[in-house]
Amino acid sequence: MSIHARHKLNRFLASMSDSRLVLNERDSCSFKCTNGMRCIVELIPNSTAVLVYFPLKRLPDSLATRVATLEQALSMNLSLQQSNGATIVLDERLKQLTLSAQRELETCSFEEFDSWLGKLIQRSQRAQEELDRFELPKALKAKSKGPSVSPLNQAIQNSVLLKI
């Protein structure tokens, strides 16, 4: 981690908010956005890049619903990559699906950072809403179909079973 990157990110965070956000001793900070989303910002160790992520949802307990949710999250990733470089990932630390993106700070101005983060905040809420809308109907459909599953669905089920 670069001292310069830490200082620059702290300046960016302080400029964004009246509450004077700063990185903690683990080079991260968390705040609640005006749209209700939680945003976590951290410096990536041994680099000058920042990682920003938004917890979207915990995985459901039901295996069928869990698989359907993971399948939807994977299918959303292509449009996210094309629109703003974000990806939905399973964050093992938080035990949640999160919308994540990273950006190099060395060549980034405050205006670019502020615009990028603002777009991610908006996109995180839409991603959360999309996952919430999708979960119930897809899970009910998967349950009514019985044992017949798509190859992707079967692969996800197998990987989830191996992890349990």
Tell me, what's the shape? elongated
Kindly state the mean pLDDT as a whole number? 83
Number of strands: 5
The tally of helices reads 4
**Share of residues in strands:** 15-25%
How are helices and strands ordered from N to C?
Answer: HEEEHEEHH
Classify the secondary structure makeup into a structural class: alpha+beta
Percentage of residues in helical conformation = 40-55%
The biggest beta sheet reads: 5 strands, antiparallel
Catalogue the unreliable spans. Answer: 160-164
How much is the radius of gyration in Å?
18 Å
Strands side by side in the biggest sheet = 1-2-3-5-4
How far apart lie the N and C ends?
35 Å
Task: Please give a quick description of this structure.
With 164 residues, this protein is an alpha+beta fold. The protein has helices at residues 3-16, 63-84, 110-145, 151-163; strands spanning 28-32, 38-43, 49-58, 87-91, 96-104.
